[in-house]
C-alpha cells in the first residue's frame, strides 16, 4: 500500500503517519524530517536547505525527489509507504509517479486532511517535542503530565522547530495554497482522493483514515 497524506502544515500528517506505522508496520517518508536530519548533520543538502526552510519556502524539487528515491530504494518492496509532506508541487507529483513505477509500486490513496487555517497557526506555534524520543506535545492541548518531564521517556529536554513561528507558518501556508493544493485535481481525476476533516479529534481522524485504507 502506498499512500500520500496531504494537507497544509499542522494538519496532522505526521501525527497520523506515526499511528499508521504502529498499526500497519508501514514506513513514513517525510521529506521535512529528512531535510531536518540533513540540516542537523550539515550535509551539502542540509546546508542548501537550511535558510529556505527557515523562511518557510520550498526546497528544490530535485533535492526532495532524490531524497524520496533513495529512501524507497533502501526500503523492502513489501513495506507500505506513507508519503508525508511530499509531493508538494506538480513537478514532485510527476517525479513521484516515475519513482513509484521504477520500484514497481503504485499509489493507492491520497488522503487530504482538510483544516481551518486560522486554527492551524495556534496548533503549530504551540507545538514542541521531546528532544530524546520525539513524542509530540502542545502548549495548550497536550502538556506533559508532569511539567518538564516527557511522559514517554522521562527526558527533561524538549525542542521546537525553528520554522514553527507565526510569520514562517503563514509563508508555509501560502506555499501550500499556491503550489501544493493545485496537484489535487490531478489525483482527483484518478479517483484516488479521500477528504477527511482534519479538525476532528485525533482518534476520529485515525478512524476515518483506517476506513479509507480498508476500502469502506
Ligand atoms: P514539513 O516538516 O513537511 O512541514 O517541512 C518543513 C520544511 O521543509 C518546509 O517548509 C520546506 O521548506 C521543506 N520541505 C519539506 N518537504 C518538502 C518538499 N516536498 N518540497 C519542498 N520543500 C520541502
Please tell me about this protein's structure.
By secondary structure, the protein is of the alpha/beta class. Helix content is 48%, strand content 15%. The protein has 9 helices and 8 strands. The protein has helices at residues 13-24, 31-40, 44-55, 61-74, 90-102, 117-125, 166-180, 184-189, 202-213, and strands at 2-6, 27-30, 81-84, 109-114, 127-130, 136-138, 158-159, 193-197. A hairpin with a 5-residue loop joins strand 5 (127-130) and strand 6 (136-138). The longest helix has 15 residues, at 166-180. The radius of gyration is 17 Å and the shape is globular. The two termini are 15 Å apart. It binds adenosine monophosphate.
Q: How would you summarize the topology of this molecule?
A:
Layout (H helix, E strand, L loop, with lengths): L1 E5 L6 H12 L2 E4 H10 L3 H12 L5 H14 L6 E4 L5 H13 L6 E6 L2 H9 L1 E4 L5 E3 L19 E2 L6 H15 L3 H6 L3 E5 L4 H12 L3
Parallel strand pairs: 1-3, 1-4, 2-3, 4-8
Antiparallel strand pairs: 5-6, 5-7
Helix pairs in contact: 2-3, 4-5, 6-7
Bound molecules: adenosine monophosphate.
